[in-house]
Amino acid sequence: MGRERTDLLRGTLDLLILKALALEPLHGVGVSRRITQITAGAFRVSFGSLFPALHRSEEKGWVEAEWARLGEQSPGQVLPPDFLRSGTAQGRGNGIGARWLRS
Questions:
Q1: Of residues 61, 65, 64, 71, the one with CA closest to residue 83
Q2: How far apart are CA 13 and CA 38, in angstroms?
Q3: Whole-number mean pLDDT of the chain?
Q4: pTM score, two decimals?
Q5: Which of 65, 70, 86, 96 lies closest to 18 in space, CA to CA?
Q6: Is the Cβ–Cβ distance between 87 and 22 less than 8 Å?
Q7: Residue 33 pLDDT > 90
Q8: How, if at all, do strands 63-68 and 82-87 pair?
Q9: Stretch 5-12: mean pLDDT, rounded?
Q10: Closest C-alpha among 36, 26, 38 to residue 87
């Protein structure tokens, strides 16, 4: 029973990550906030669970990551780059959650 529950939670988190990234690329904290927003606060993911799940999704080809700068930069201000993640076509593909991700 423990293994099935763990697999269910991982699958749920994977789908929530893809749903969070459906609109725009986000950094890790943004993904966490979007998941909380999507689930109306019912699902709050810790960074200890989120980042391994993001890495798993990258390895499966569902999510890709790149360094980019977010936000506006005023004169003389240097913004550090953020590690942004976005969903891939494979991640949005024909899997079991494809219709849910589009809703």
A1: 65
A2: 12
A3: 77
A4: 0.71
A5: 86
A6: yes
A7: yes
A8: antiparallel
A9: 63
A10: 26
Q: Count CB neighbours of 13 within 10 A.
A: 20
Per-residue pLDDT band at 7 (split at 50, 70, 90): low
Percentage of the residues of the chain whose pLDDT score is greater than 70: 63
Token pair for 8: 């269910």
Instruction: Please give the Cα distance from 30 to 35 (Å, whole number).
Output: 9
Q: What is the CA radius of gyration of the chain?
A: 15
In the prediction, which pLDDT does 48 show?
A: 92
Amino acid at 103: S
Secondary structure of residue 62 in the 3-state scheme: coil
Q: Which two tokens stand for residue 67?
A: 């360094």
Six-digit token string for 34? 């979007």
